[in-house]
């Protein structure tokens, strides 16, 4: 019978970047995952931090090459979208690359202040403060500006937000304004709940901000829910946005930053195809051409990449505890964890990740379903992003499986250290990083949650 490895080699361009199969075992960025499992057991989260820096540099290369080719006069600024993963080990790795930050909630600001105190950033870092802001979020923004952070840019989500800064600040402050974009044709509503309508922005600026002694609007922001896709919808929204920028720039010489919200996709299947260089070059070309038509200077381009930055750095590993065949067609791998608890995007949003075996690559293969340990009927994984099936080695040996590129959102949505469905414990989390001399180091970020910790949260005495 054809081996599982041969099956993948014939079906896909395998292995993708970052993966390797040696002596019947899977390696992830050079790390032998079977050795990792033997040392730390499963279920296990694993993060390889150098991937984060590599992704940031990839984006800079794509934009840099496009700007050089097209003789684009503006600069490129990479913002990391903190909501994808707020953990300190992630931010420390991100900040090694001299990036800017984009925030979405009140607690982001004390996090940034803490990173400043520990020497990971300086007070001139650009912080784009997005989202609908409650009192606490706005007050943190004001406090940070008063504390000497010179490049905090609150992005106005509505007219009323400006009133707070007007009453609380008496020193120079750059502002952004968010455009309320249209939603995709299949959306439940037509216009984003966030931002100002296009026909309000210029009037609002002219009547409230243009002559203000302290405030300048330096940034115009938009966000496309689908992310940056090579689709008619994205290109249409981008062109409308750049045209608005040009009209705004003619009456506001301080406007120099064009913030393209909505991230680049990451690899979520073996058949993933996305021409990053082409799409980014077309973005730069579109902006340049429209600015030339309007005879306005080309803006500095700002992007907010979250999932693209961190997703491909992590994987989640499980042991197959049992095999079940419930009828003549459906075979199950029952794993020692929960899809709902540990990979919540699968259950909530039908997101897909790459699911690969860790061992037994020379065995035959069969179609299977992956079942979690909870009693919930939705705790399963049954197809990849590109095919309505999952294939795994057909073997009687102990089997381990991994879900790959799970570094964005999954831990935050799961709630590290808290309660989970059916009281499933948090898995152990292991980090790999590079030292200054290029050597690798490994540490346990946190151990697997135990019953005493869970009982304490529930109010029980042990």
Structural topology:
Elements: H1 4-11, E1 19-22, E2 25-28, E3 31-32, H2 33-40, E4 44-48, H3 50-70, E5 76-81, H4 88-95, E6 100-103, H5 108-117, E7 127-129, H6 135-146, E8 152-156, H7 159-168, E9 173-178, H8 198-209, E10 215-223, H9 232-251, E11 257-261, H10 276-294, E12 300-305, H11 307-310, E13 314-325, E14 331-335, H12 339-342, H13 344-349, E15 354-357, E16 364-371, E17 380-381, E18 390-394, E19 400-404, H14 410-414, E20 428-434, E21 440-446, H15 451-458
Parallel strand pairs: 4-20, 5-6, 5-12, 6-7, 7-8, 8-9, 9-10, 10-11, 11-12, 14-16
Antiparallel strand pairs: 1-2, 2-3, 4-13, 13-14, 13-19, 15-19, 16-17, 16-18, 20-21
Main sheet makeup? 10 strands, mixed
- Note the overall shape: globular
* Category from helices, strands and their pairing: alpha/beta
The total of helices stands at: 15
CA radius of gyration: 24 Å
* Mean pLDDT metric: 93
Main features:
single chain; alpha/beta; 21 strands; 8-stranded parallel beta barrel; TIM Barrel; globular; Lyase, Ornithine Decarboxylase, Chain A, domain 1; 462 residues
Describe this structure in words.
With 462 residues, the protein is α/β, with parallel strands linked by helices. Helices cover 34% and strands 25% of the residues. The protein folds into 2 domains: 4-48 and 311-458, Lyase, Ornithine Decarboxylase, Chain A, domain 1; 72-305, Alpha-Beta Barrel (TIM Barrel), CATH 3.20.20. The chain contains 15 helices and 21 strands. The strands form 3 sheets. Strands 4, 13, 14, 15, 16, 17, 18, 19, 20 and 21 form a 10-stranded mixed sheet that branches. Strands 5-6-7-8-9-10-11-12 form an 8-stranded parallel beta barrel, surrounded by 5 helices. Strand 11 (257-261), helix 10 and strand 12 form a beta-alpha-beta unit. The longest helix has 21 residues, at 50-70. The protein starts with a helix and ends with a helix. The model has no long low-confidence stretch (mean pLDDT 93).
């Amino acid at each position: 019978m054809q081996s599982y490895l041969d099956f993948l080699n014939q079906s896909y361009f395998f292995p993708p970047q970052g993966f390797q199969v040696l002596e019947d075992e899977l390696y992830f960025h050079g790390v032998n995952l079977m050795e990792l499992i033997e040392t730390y057991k499963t279920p296990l989260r694993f993060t390889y931090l150098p991937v984060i820096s590599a992704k940031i540099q990839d984006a800079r290369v794509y934009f840099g090459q496009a700007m050089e080719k097209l003789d684009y006069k503006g600069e490129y600024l990479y913002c990391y979208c903190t909501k994808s993963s707020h953990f300190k080990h992630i931010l420390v790795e991100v900040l090694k690359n001299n990036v800017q930050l984009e925030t979405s909630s009140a607690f982001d600001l004390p996090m940034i202040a803490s990173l400043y105190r520990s020497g990971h950033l300086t007070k001139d870092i650009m912080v784009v403060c997005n989202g609908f802001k409650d009192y606490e979020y706005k007050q943190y923004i004001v406090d940070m500006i008063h504390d000497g952070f010179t490049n905090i840019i609150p992005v106005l989500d509505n007219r009323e937000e400006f009133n707070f800064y007007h009453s609380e600040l008496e020193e120079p402050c750059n502002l952004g304004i968010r455009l309320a974009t249209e939603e995709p044709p299949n959306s439940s509503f037509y216009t984003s709940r966030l931002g100002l309508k296009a026909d309000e922005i210029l009037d609002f600026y002219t009547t409230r901000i243009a002559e203000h002694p302290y405030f300048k609007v330096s940034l115009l922001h938009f966000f496309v829910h689908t992310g940056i896709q090579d689709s008619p919808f994205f290109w249409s929204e981008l062109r409308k946005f750049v045209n608005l920028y040009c009209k705004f720039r003619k009456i506001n010489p301080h406007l120099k930053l064009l913030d393209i919200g909505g991230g680049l996709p990451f690899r979520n299947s073996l058949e993933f195809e996305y021409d990053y260089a082409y799409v980014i070059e077309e973005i730069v070309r579109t902006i340049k051409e429209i600015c030339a038509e309007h005879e306005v200077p080309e803006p500095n381009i700002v992007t907010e990449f979250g999932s693209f930055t961190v997703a491909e750095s992590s994987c989640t590993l499980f042991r197959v505890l049992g095999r079940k065949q419930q009828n003549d067609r459906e075979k199950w791998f029952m794993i020692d964890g929960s899809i709902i608890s540990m990979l919540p995007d699968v259950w909530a949003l039908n997101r897909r990740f790459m699911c690969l075996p860790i061992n037994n690559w020379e065995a035959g293969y069969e179609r299977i379903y992956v079942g979690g340990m909870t009693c919930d009927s939705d705790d399963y994984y049954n197809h990849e992003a590109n095919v309505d099936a999952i294939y795994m080695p057909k073997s009687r040996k102990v089997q381990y499986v991994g879900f790959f590129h799970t570094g964005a959102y999954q831990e935050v949505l799961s709630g590290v250290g808290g309660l989970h469905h059916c009281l499933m414990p948090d898995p152990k989390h292991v980090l790999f990083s590079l030292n200054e001399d290029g050597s690798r180091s490994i540490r346990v970020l946190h151990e697997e949650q135990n019953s005493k910790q869970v009982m304490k949260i529930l109010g029980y005495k042990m």
